[in-house]
Amino acid sequence: MAKSFTHLLRAPESPVKLHKIASDAHPGVDSKDEALRKLPKLGARLADLQERLFAQSRGGTEPASKKLLLVLQGMDTSGKGGTVKHVAGVMDPGGLRITSFKSPTEEELSHDFLWRIRKALPTPGMVGVFDRSHYEDVLIVRVRDLVPREQWELRYGLINEFEQELADQGTTVVKCFLHIGRDTQKDRLLARLDDPTKLWKYNTNDVKERKLWPAYQDAYEAALSLTSTETAPWYVIPADRKWYRNYAITKLLIETLERIGPEWPPADYDVKTEKKRVLAS
Questions:
Q1: How far apart are CA 176 and CA 243, in angstroms?
Q2: pTM exceeds 0.85 for this model
Q3: C-alpha distances in angstroms, 90 versus 39, 84, 138, 193, 246?
Q4: How many alpha carbons fall within 13 Å on the CB side of residue 30?
Q5: Could you tell me the sign of the dihedral formed by the alpha carbons of 204, 71, 253, 122, in that order?
Q6: Phi then psi for 68, rounded to 5 degrees?
Q7: Which residues face 131 on adjacent strands?
Q8: Are 242 and 250 in contact, with CB atoms under 8 Å apart?
Q9: Which residue of 70, 156, 208, 220 sits 20 to 30 Å from the alpha carbon of 167, by its own alpha carbon?
Q10: How far apart are CA 179 and CA 73, in angstroms?
């Protein structure tokens, strides 16, 4: 029996070593042609499951309180925006909430680091997507030495408690680390500079951040190792190949929603009576 994508891509239980995980791999699918051939049908299945989740929350039947949260993390150019466009893009926007977390505002800095995260959580029946997330507070904060070590070290435990709280309240969290190689990042940055339609995506700070690659890899390895739990495991998505990234995350979301098992809610009115009323109107 073939392994599920959740099994194939789940972060190792032992300390994560990213250099041992190929960023150009494509486990679970043999070729780009195969993935692209299957994606339309998978996209339709994902859209159907998402609509069922949304409809069920409005119909008041179990599991009406269920929600799904997709967390996307990765180095610059790893494809967080591309995932939102190509994977979340197939879903009904009425049941979708996308939040892109930037540098915190003064108001956000005046609260604890989870305050702005809580404000963006999906409500019952919704699929939420985080482009960056609460993990920035153990990543860039750590690498850039923005708060004392003793402060960010405590956050791993606080994150685990927070995600367990979400699970207890009916939220299934799918955390995807988009794993790209350093050479791939260089190629993508150069491609942006060579394309007038993508110059707006380039940030002159990207090169400064790129020089901190080893420190970011260490920070990601720590986050993946310390916060991949049974309740909210991490999935390492080889993301050098954009087609595989989209295929793998679509499959992960389908498998996750199938476990949640949303169904179309029954009508809370007499269908035959309503048909007669419509015909007579």
A1: 15
A2: yes
A3: 11, 9, 31, 29, 11
A4: 3
A5: negative
A6: -130, 135
A7: 72, 100
A8: no
A9: 220
A10: 9
- Of 165, 152, 176, the C-alpha closest to 252 is 176
Q: Which two tokens stand for residue 85?
A: 């466009």
3-state secondary structure of 174: strand
Separation between Cα atoms, residue 128 and residue 118, nearest integer Å: 12
Half-sphere exposure of 138 (CA within 13 A, CB side): 24
> For the chain, how big is the Rg over CA atoms in Å?
20
Question: Domains of the chain (ranges plus CATH)?
Answer: 5-280 (3.40.50.300)
CA distance 122 to 145: 31
Question: Contact at 8 Å (CB) between 238 and 25?
Answer: yes
Residues of the chain with pLDDT under 50: 1
What pLDDT does residue 139 have?
Answer: 97
Q: Which pLDDT belongs to residue 1?
A: 41
